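Hi R.,

Here's the chain you asked about this morning:
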Amino acid sequence: MSQVPSDALLSATDRDKLAKLQLYARQVVEGITVGMHRSPHKGFSVEFKEHRPYVRGDEIRTIDWKLYGKTDRLYIRQYEEETNLRCTILVDQSGSMAYGAKGSTKTSKHDFGVRLAACLAYMLVGQQDSVGLVTFDTEMRNYIPPRSKPSHLRSLLGTLAASKPNGETAISEVLTKLVPKIRKRGLLVLISDCFDEVDNLLRTLSYFRHARNDVVVFQVWDRDELEFPFRGRTQFRSLELASHMRLLDSSLLRKSYLENLAKFRTALSAGCGKQKIDLISCTTDQPHASLLASYLAARGRSL
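And here is the predicted structure, written out as tokens:
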């Protein structure tokens, strides 16, 4: 497994990128009004939250027997944890995430994802939450366990600064290998274009949901992928397999491409909805501050 890069292992370019990344994250987070933090996870700790009806499979020790004596009905006492949230952020660094970089002034999907991860890490550490990081393609290239110390943030940002998109991807396989590392329930954030078999991806994400983790997927798109603006004969080259390229009439390809894209997005959205996974579709031209503010507001309303 790759080790977390220290300043000594970062190139001058990476150190410059790290400084800019930290500044960007701070500016974005300062632009978001974040309320008092309270973990949404419920357990058996300090503060009573509410009752709910007992359902088969609930632990007997959580039954409020005094209330049962009064009502002759079984209710569960739920508590609100005062422990901080544990979050693991996964950033896809496969070749397809490089789209939008070369020969363009646009932000690549990977750069967008790195900045989004930096903003989330900066915000969570500022709330004294524990944050970990995974960068991956076909394997986990870096794994940093969740911690909450301010000094830990620099390790996270250093790894993000040194991350470079390249090669193929295997999201489902990486998630499967991550399962035994997530021993305590918390929040799992996947930042990726999600180019994988939908059924396999949903199946592996469901492992974390069954363990009562919250799962959030930020699916990153370049607008070209959504709108397919190409015209005439165009050469398409795989960013994951350089030898794969085709010269095609894009006007003939456009209809079938958009139809397949719609099927892919519908299947992923439906599957995430069924698993109660938050799926946020975002494009590389969106400001991170407004994206995060909108999501946090929606998340707050749903808790």
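One quick note: Confidence is low (pLDDT under 50) at residues 1-6, 33-48.

Cheers,
M.
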